Amino acid sequence: MKKFMFLFVAVIGFTVISKAQVNISINIGAQPAWGPTGYDHVDYYYLPDIDCYYDVPNKVYVYPDGNNWVRVRQLPARYRNVDLYNAHKVVINGDNRPYQHADKYRQEYGGFKDRHDQTPIRDSKEEKYFESKGHPQHAQWEKDHQTHNKGGKKGGDNRNDRDDRPGPDRH
Question: Where does the signal peptide begin and end (predicted)?
């Protein structure tokens, strides 16, 4: 029975560790070009200027409509004058539905409204942000990575083409 309990606890522990590793994965390529630099992983952005959220993995905005929160691919017309590249974004990780705690986020981050002090991914010179589809260097980044992935190592010999295993005719 002790062995069974140990095995059960080990499996549960491995599952928890695996889930934690998934939560800290890098998702720079999924982040929009208007997202702020400095974050390798983002679940949500809170946009205090318009009291909305952006769900990065699902690429949808979440905004209040009466007593409901609506999820859409594009913001409605009432937000058309918002410049997301200059609006302040608050990164929220670890909260699967931050809009359900909207009062908390309004209170904590409402003071960031009208601040324009973040560099968007689009304007970054750091190579890691070239993966973002909205970055001006994305096409070159994509071309470089396709070449790299198709032909093995760029500029080097591909050791997978040789058979270095010992055999009857090889010593």
Answer: 1-20
Which residues constitute the domain of residue 143? 28-150
**HEC sequence for the chain:** CHHHHHHHHHHHHHHHHHHHHHHCCCCHHHCCCCCECCCCCCCEEEECCCCEEEECCCCEEEEEECCEEEEECCCCHHHCCCCCCCCCCEEECCCCCHHHHHHHHHHHHHHHCCCCCCCEHHHCCCHHHHHCCCCCCHHHHHHHHHHHHHCCCCCCCCHHHCCCCCECCEC
Q: List, for residues 70-86, the tens digit of each pLDDT value.
A: 999 999 999 989 999 99
For the stretch 86-98, pLDDT in tens is: 999 999 999 999 9
User: Total domain count for the chain?
Assistant: 1
pTM of the full structure: 0.70
